[in-house]
Amino acid sequence: MDGQFSLNLEAVFRHIDKAETFSLALPTIKRALVIDMRTDGDDGPFIRVMPMARSAADRLRTLRRLRPSLPRAAEILVVPWPSFVDGLVRAGVWERLEKRVSLSGSDAATDALEKAFDELRATEARELGALLRGEQYEVVWSRSS
C-alpha cells in the first residue's frame, strides 16, 4: 500500500463481500466513498462520493435521509484508506468493489462506481495540486535564516 501503512486486506475484502452498508474513508482528500447495497423494488444500490462524516452515526442518518424508502440501516462499516486513490487499485480493493457491485445486476450502480472512481481521482489531483502550489495550506514552522 504505497509503503506508508499496513492494512489487513483480507478483512477489507470480507467486509466488502458481506456488509450491506460501508464506506471507504479517504482522509487525505476529506472524502468518503459510501456504498449501500440494500435494494427494494424502486431503489438499487447507492454509491456516492461524499464529504467525510464526523461519525458512523452521522453517516447512517445521512443514508436514512437519502434513502427514506428503505428501512433504517443497522450499521455501517467504515474502512479508513490513508493512501492514494490508485492504491485501491494496486491493492485489489477496487476490483473487489467492482465485483460486489456487478453482482447486484444494476447497470446504474456499476456506472455510479465508475463515476465515483473518476471523482476520487480528480479530487485527489486537485488536492495534490493545491498542496504543491501552497494553496489552502499554511507553514507550521520554517527554517530560520
Q: Can you walk through the features of this model?
A:
The protein is an alpha+beta fold. It has one domain. The protein contains five helices and four strands, in the order H-E-E-E-H-E-H-H-H. It has a four-stranded mixed beta sheet, with helices on one face. Strand 1 and strand 2 (31-36) form a beta hairpin. The relative contact order is 0.18. The model has no long low-confidence stretch (mean pLDDT 89).
The share of residues in extended strands comes to 15-25%
User: Mean pLDDT, as a whole number?
Assistant: 89
Q: What letter string, H or E per element, gives the SSE order?
A: HEEEHEHHH
- Poorly predicted runs of 5 or more residues: none
Determine the number of helices (DSSP H or I, runs of at least 4 residues): 5
Structural class: alpha+beta
State the distance separating the first and last CA atoms.
Answer: 38 Å
Number of domains: 1
CA-atom Rg in angstroms: 17 Å
Largest sheet: 4 strands, mixed
Output the strand order for the largest sheet: 3-2-1-4
Residue share in helix? 40-55%
Overall geometry comes to: globular
Q: Based on DSSP secondary structure assignment, what is the total number of beta strands?
A: 4
Short summary:
This protein is an alpha+beta fold and about 140 residues long. It is about 45% helix and about 15% strand. The protein contains 5 helices and 4 strands.
What attributes does this structure have?
single chain; 145 residues; alpha+beta; four-stranded mixed sheet; 5 helices; 45% helix; globular
Q: Secondary-structure map with pairings?
A:
Blueprint: H1 9-18, E1 21-26, E2 31-36, E3 46-51, H2 56-66, E4 77-80, H3 85-90, H4 93-103, H5 107-133
Parallel strand pairs: 1-4
Antiparallel strand pairs: 1-2, 2-3
